[in-house]
């Protein structure tokens, strides 16, 4: 394991956003501040010292990696706590003449403009309790299992007393047994994240100077945390200016996007089976062509026709690919989820691709599919969380201009000529009014062939049932400006 000098103020930055909190379970507690003066006192005196910094998260991560290297089975019961505020929450803390932060944050996730821009389901159709009152902030409590996390969540509620009203809370948890680290459709998740310049804590570092793990491009930390250089818009490697801060207390903070995404798992499985039969192909291959990876995590770019679970689980190889040398979508469709949301070397240059990165930190929620559950009976899916310093240029851009845009990636032509419309991201893409979506080339023309196929998706298998935009302040901002 190698470490490059840390110029980042990790003791100031919350742990979930740069490093990730060690979590088998995560409780999301959405609250309204009912008594601002009391809330500020409780935050200063009780909460702040319990907030898990990126430094602590990194030390824990190192211990986990060290144990893995030594093949030790022992694990530790670590609790971690982070928190963020909506625009309404910041107004409660610092008044209504606060500086204007990111335009998307100021609008909010439930604003009609946001809903229209992202083709989201209207808040009237979201989980009822989530929208039963104003949401000022969220606590994230993580740990080794749900009962541990519930215990600490209850202690936190007691510590806050009547300073807050809990509007909604929900537990996320990793899936059991062999499905651990797989999301509910069955795919291995959490493989590809941007590498952060200044933090190297993974095993298996690449020999390439601008990569973390093999294939993992390094990104300047200002893309995810305020106060540091961001990406140069014209050069994927050079640092660009730090992102604008409307107030100096934003330093070491970040924006968090939360989306409760319900997944219709039995419906997804049935659809894939029926469509694979129609197209005369293996259903696992069709599912992989929708995602861009096999369930094992193996990328189609490296395993275009058959799964390779050894490859899927190998951190040295499972992210080491691009799309540039697959110009005719023979191995991986242009519309496949991972090709849409991070096109790598397939767009107007690598510098552009690196301007729309996010750090993902979500966790599944809901029970496993029951035997005999042929239409969804229980709400399950992904508590999607991502971090960035511009919601518009990062999360919203990905959802709006990539996943929801059938024309992206632009400028592709068929091998024999003629323009290609890649279609929607079949996993998270949303058409206006939840209309029918299409994706191009579900059937592979690999290594050769010219069979033209389309996949029509009359329904979404992923739907939005709650959402929020939060600011995750630095630990000093929590201790001072926001609670004075
Ligand atoms: Fe996605 N899935 O199971 O199909 N995602 N995602 N995602 N996603 C990824 O590489 C999934 C969602 C990104 O760097 C993998 O770690 C599901 C939203 C990005 O190559 C799988 C849902 C957004 C990446 C899934 C969902 C993104 C990524 C491969 C919702 C942003 C990294 C595992 C229920 C708008 C791409 C991995 C890269 C990877 C799935 C949501 C974005 C399997 C089921 C809302 C940037």
Written account of the structure:
The structure is a single chain. The protein has 484 residues and is an alpha+beta fold. It folds into 2 domains: 15-187 and 245-260 and 467-479, no CATH class; 264-387 and 405-465, no CATH class. The protein is 24% helix and 18% strand. It has 14 helices and 15 strands. The chain has helices spanning 15-18, 36-47, 54-69, 87-94, 103-107, 112-118, 146-160, 265-279, 283-291, 309-312, 337-341, 350-353, 395-403, 475-479; strands at residues 25-33, 80-85, 137-143, 164-173, 195-196, 218-219, 230-232, 235-240, 254-263, 359-360, 363-365, 381-388, 437-440, 454-457, 462-472. The strands form 5 sheets. Strands 9, 10, 11, 12 and 15 form a 5-stranded antiparallel beta sheet that branches. The protein has a 4-stranded antiparallel beta sheet with strand order 2-3-1-4. A two-stranded parallel ribbon has the order 5-6. Helix 8 packs across helix 9 (283-291). The longest helix has 16 residues, at 54-69. The radius of gyration is 22 Å and the shape is globular. Delta-meso nitroheme binds next to strand 9, helix 11, strand 12 and helix 13.
Provide the descriptors you would attach to this structure in a database record.
484 residues; alpha+beta; 2 domains; 24% helix; 18% strand; globular; disordered N terminus; binds delta-meso nitroheme
């Amino acid at each position: 394991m190698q470490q490059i000098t840390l110029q980042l103020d990790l003791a100031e930055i919350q742990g979930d956003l740069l490093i990730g909190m060690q979590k088998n379970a995560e409780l999301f507690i959405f609250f309204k501040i009912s008594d601002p003066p009391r809330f500020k006192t409780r935050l200063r005196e009780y909460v702040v010292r319990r907030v898990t910094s990126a430094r602590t998260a990194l030390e824990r991560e190192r211990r986990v990696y060290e144990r893995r290297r030594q093949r030790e089975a022992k694990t530790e019961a670590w609790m971690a706590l982070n928190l963020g505020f909506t625009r309404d929450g910041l107004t409660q803390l610092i008044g209504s003449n606060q500086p204007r932060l990111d335009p998307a944050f100021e609008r909010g996730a439930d604003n009609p403009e946001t809903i229209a821009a992202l083709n989201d389901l209207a808040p009237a159709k979201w989980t009822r309790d989530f929208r039963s009152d104003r949401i000022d902030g969220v606590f994230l409590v993580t740990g080794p299992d749900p009962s541990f996390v519930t215990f600490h969540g209850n202690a936190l509620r007691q510590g806050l007393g009547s300073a807050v009203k809990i509007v909604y809370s929900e537990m996320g948890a990793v899936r059991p047994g062999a499905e651990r680290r797989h999301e509910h459709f069955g795919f291995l998740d959490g493989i590809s994240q941007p590498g952060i310049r200044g933090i190297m804590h993974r095993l298996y570092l690449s020999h390439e100077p601008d990569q973390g793990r093999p294939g993992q491009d390094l990104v300047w930390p200002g893309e995810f945390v305020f106060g540091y250089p961001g990406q140069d818009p014209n050069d994927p490697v050079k640092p660009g200016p730090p992102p604008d801060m409307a107030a100096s207390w934003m330093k070491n903070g970040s924006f968090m996007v939360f989306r409760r995404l319900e997944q219709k798992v039995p419906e997804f499985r049935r659809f894939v089976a029926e469509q694979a039969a129609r197209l005369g192909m293996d259903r696992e291959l069709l599912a992989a062509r929708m995602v861009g990876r096999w369930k094992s995590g193996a990328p189609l770019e490296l395993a275009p026709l058959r799964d390779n679970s050894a490859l899927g689980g190998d951190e040295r190889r499972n992210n080491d690919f691009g799309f540039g040398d697959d110009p005719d979508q023979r191995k991986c469709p242009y519309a496949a989820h991972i090709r849409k949301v991070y096109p790598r070397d397939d767009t107007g240059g690598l510098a552009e691709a690196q301007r729309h990165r996010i750090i993902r930190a979500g966790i599944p929620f809901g029970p496993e599919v029951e035997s005999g559950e042929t239409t969804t009976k229980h709400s399950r899916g992904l508590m999607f969380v991502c971090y960035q310093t511009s919601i518009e240029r990062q999360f919203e851009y990905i959802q709006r201009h990539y996943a929801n845009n059938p024309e992206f990636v632009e400028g592709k032509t068929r091998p024999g000529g003629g323009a290609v419309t890649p279609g929607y991201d079949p996993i998270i893409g949303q058409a206006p009014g939840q209309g029918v979506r299409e994706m191009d080339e579900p059937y592979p023309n690999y290594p050769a062939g010219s069979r033209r196929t389309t996949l029509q998706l009359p329904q979404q298998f992923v739907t939005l049932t709650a959402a929020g935009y939060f600011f995750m302040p630095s630990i000093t901002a929590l201790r001072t400006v926001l609670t004075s």
